[in-house]
Design goal:
Radius of gyration: 66 Å
Distance between the termini: 162 Å
CATH class of the largest domain: Alpha Beta
Bound molecules: guanosine-5'-triphosphate
Largest sheet: 8 strands, mixed
Structural class: alpha/beta
CATH topology of the largest domain: Rossmann fold
CATH architecture of the largest domain: 3-Layer(aba) Sandwich
CATH superfamily of the largest domain: P-loop containing nucleotide triphosphate hydrolases
């Protein structure tokens, strides 16, 4: 049964648990699986190779535990004098109180309880030699020289076991013979010579494996001899001897500890190592230490690697969380490198003490695991960098395009360079040395996105440019086309189209000049120019349509007709006389005007070359996908046949009215009364006027009329009254004219033709005047 116990601690080295002993292997040959924890408790876990292991061998009850406790401050059980029975069962371990030394108290050989069972002795020897560099062989002075004694059997076992473990190696072990109850009668040198001779004899008798026949005992063992005085009879001398012996458990020329004795098992792996050694030993398997060390290295390197990886992931998790925010994390590469360096350093510190090959390969595994963990962070950072670089590009582009007179290619080039540089710098920062990562693909994707954004922006800017040129074009043609469309004639369309062509040419030149900075392709230029032409044509068509609405067209026709019919060649209004050929002039003017309807009905220059050329719709479309279909041929038609007929008939009706009016004006001029007739009438009425002025009633009436006129003037009623009176006057005048005309045109029947002739002639003459 595995047990541990605590005795009164004698703490001299600061380790509270140092004095606690533990049963590593119990009497039933079971290994204590908690040994590693005990190494921890003893404060040796991180000692690396800087510790030593000492084991004591010897017959039962020869004072082994007593010696160890005195030498190392350990707390092994010591046999009760009164009982005299075996105390140490199995193998116990305790840390020396002021030295980094693990001390093993091994069950005594030739124990009464085990009887003839030599199995445990051999196994414990194998176990102790595999892990301890100093083997204390405890024996009474009086036993020396007794070749048949138990000690000889023990030594033979030790030598054989050592040979099987380290036969082909240079590993050495110190055999320290502690001669107990050394009375001093036989000098120590003699005793050691005897013992050396005994051991040499044993060495000679042991069968050596093939190839090792010529090896010497001293190739494997260093021998040291110490004598201790009788503890009961010479207690002071005994104490002094022990004290002296204790001083030799050091490094140095006279010290027992030597680097060459060490088994080179890192302290943190001692528990696992001893466990696997004992497992091999107890199951009677061949104990191959190199293999054991390799296995130990694998086990421990895995453990160390796991611990390093856990510490690493707990730190890296925070970086991972930050990245989930969608923003590139500043100095992520630096942090990642630190985490990795820290993890590897942690691994190296402990694992590098183990089997070099295993350590190297486990380090590579750990590195790969670290990289595997970091890679998604790297990718997430690249993704975030991609986003931020695109955003930077857009900002730079917008800023650049806001400036007056920008050069598109330069703005895009600068923005692109800044975006790519930002991405590369960020991506370089997050690269980890030795990790087989690159960001070529992401950079390529960024380039593709930048190209798409550039294409979109270019398309927008080109549309804006075409719109701007279109506006300039419209201004250019506006007044000129208005003017030309107001002057209808057979050459009207030629002039209009010439104006159109000149403005379009200017617009196209403006486009070509600006398009250079966009680095546009010939295909894009062709599309844009076509769009420009289409829009220009549409703008012209809009102008034409504005001028050919029914109302405006009729007004134009009327004006044209009036100009021809009512004004002479010199632009002076005609006053019709009965000698004028009103009918002929009317027909000519009307027909010429009707001709204009045909001119307005279709855009048809006399020179067909003036018409612009457009590719068929299905072959070519402009930059505006949304533009309504462009049908050039249809656009030439302005007035349909039916519309022409309608406008012609409306115009004719208006023209007929002018004709009638012209005819009437002749009649009215014939019937006009000369003004001197009104003068004669006024003169003839002088006496009546004097009569009215001097008549009180008439005078009062006049004064009242004057007062009324004044009131009307003050009340601003003069205008309306004047209008009414003028209307009344006109009516009276018209009535008077009618009466006079009747009177002069149809005088009362006269038998004398001469008389009729005489009466008509003066009237006619008068009217003609
Ligand atoms: N004569 C003599 N007796 C000693 C000496 N050292 C210890 N003893 C006594 O020997 C007895 C056995 O001592 P232990 O230290 O228990 O011996 P051990 O070899 O550890 O015994 P086991 O663990 O049972 O094998 C005790 O009674 C001690 O007092 C010594 O140097 N000389």
């Amino acid at each position: 049964m595995i047990s541990d116990s605590v005795q009164t601690p004698s703490i001299t080295n600061g380790h509270a648990d140092a004095s606690m002993r533990v049963q590593v292997i119990d009497e039933d040959k079971k290994f204590n699986a908690d040994l590693s924890k005990w190494i921890d408790k003893w404060g040796l876990r991180s000692a690396g190779f800087d510790y030593d292991v000492v084991a004591v061998f010897g017959s039962q009850s020869t004072g082994k535990s007593t010696l160890l406790n005195k030498l190392f401050g350990t707390t092994f059980d010591v046999m009760d004098e009164t009982q005299r029975r075996q105390t140490t069962k199995g193998i116990w371990m305790c840390r020396a109180d002021d030295l980094p030394v693990l001390v093993m108290d091994v069950e005594g050989t030739d124990g009464r309880e085990r009887g003839e069972d030599q199995d445990f002795e051999r196994k414990s020897a194998l176990f102790s030699l595999a892990s301890s560099q100093i083997l204390l062989v405890n024996l009474w002075e009086h036993q020396i020289g007794l070749y048949q004694g138990a000690n000889m059997a023990l030594l033979k076992t030790v030598i054989e076991v050592n040979l099987s473990l380290f036969g082909k190696t240079d590993q050495k072990t110190l055999l320290l013979f502690v001669i107990r109850d050394h009375v001093g009668a036989t000098p120590l040198t003699n005793l050691s010579a005897t013992l050396t001779a005994d051991i040499e004899r044993i060495w000679a008798s042991v069968s050596k494996p093939e190839g090792l026949e010529s090896r010497l005992l001293t190739d494997y063992f260093d021998l040291e001899y110490v004598g201790l005085a009788h503890k009961i009879l010479m207690p002071d001398k005994f104490e002094a001897d022990v004290k002296s012996l204790r001083t030799r458990f050091t490094f140095g020329p006279t010290g027992f500890f030597k680097e060459r004795y060490r088994r080179r098992i890192p302290a943190d792996g001692v528990g696992v190592y001893m466990d696997s050694i004992w497992e091999q030993v107890s199951s009677n398997k061949d104990l191959d230490l190199p293999t054991q060390q390799e296995l130990l290295a694998q086990f421990r390197c895995d453990e160390i690697s796991k611990a390093a990886l856990e510490a690493f992931t707990s730190r890296a998790k925070e970086g991972r969380r930050n990245l989930e925010g969608g923003k590139a994390v500043a100095n992520l590469g630096g942090m990642m490198r630190d985490w990795k360096t820290e993890a590897l350093h942690r691994f190296d510190t402990e694992a590098s003490r183990y089997h070099a090959g295993v350590y190297k390969s486990k380090r590579e595994d750990l590195t790969a695991a670290l990289h595997a963990y970091l890679q998604p962070l790297f990718m997430a950072q690249l993704k975030n960098l991609h986003k931020s670089s695109l955003a930077l590009f857009k900002v730079q582009l917008e800023e650049g395009l806001r400036k007056d007179g920008y050069d598109f290619a330069t703005v895009v080039g600068d923005a692109r360079t800044k975006s790519q540089t930002a991405f590369k710098e960020g991506a370089d920062e997050v690269l980890i040395p030795d990790a087989d990562w690159d960001y070529d693909l992401e950079l390529q994707q960024l380039d593709e996105d930048l190209t798409s954004l550039t294409a979109l922006s270019k398309s927008d800017e080109m549309k804006k440019m075409v719109n701007s040129i279109e506006r300039t074009f419209k201004r250019e043609i506006g007044e000129k086309v208005d003017l030309e469309l107001g002057r209808p004639g057979p050459k009207m369309w030629d002039t209009v189209l010439t104006v159109y062509s000149a403005a379009l040419q200017k617009a196209e030149q403006a486009y070509v000049k600006k398009a250079k900075s966009f680095g546009s392709t010939p295909d894009e230029d062709a599309k844009s120019l076509l769009t420009l032409r289409q829009r220009a044509w549409r703008a012209l068509k809009v102008k034409v349509d504005e001028h050919t609405t029914e109302t405006l067209l009729l007004s134009k026709l009327r004006a044209s007709f009036e100009e021809k019919f009512r004004y002479d060649e010199n632009g002076v209004p005609r006053v019709w006389s009965k000698n004028d050929d009103i009918d002929g002039l009317f027909r000519k003017s009307r027909d010429e005007t009707v001709e204009l309807i045909t001119v307005y009905s279709r855009i048809k220059p006399s020179n067909p070359d003036l018409l612009p050329a457009f590719p068929p719709e299905e072959e070519f479309s402009g930059i505006d996908g949304n533009d309504e279909p462009f049908e050039f041929e249809e656009s030439l038609l302005i007035l349909s046949e039916a519309k022409q007929v309608d406008i012609t008939s409306k115009f004719r009706r208006e023209a007929d009215a002018y004709f009638v009016e012209a005819k009437r004006s002749i009649v009215s001029s014939i019937a006009q009364i000369p003004y001197w007739v009104y003068g004669i009438i006024l003169l003839l009425g002088w006496n009546e006027a004097i009569f009215v002025l001097f008549h009180p009633i008439y005078l009062f009436t006049i004064i009242m009329a004057g007062a009324a006129a004044y009131a009307i003037f003050q009340l601003n009623l003069a205008g309306p009254l004047f209008q009414i009176s003028r209307t009344v006057t006109n009516e009276l005048q018209r009535q008077a004219h009618g009466r006079l005309k009747e009177y002069f045109a149809d005088p009362p029947a006269s038998p004398s033709g001469d008389l009729r002739q005489r009466r008509v002639s003066p009237g006619t003459e008068m009217l003609e005047k």
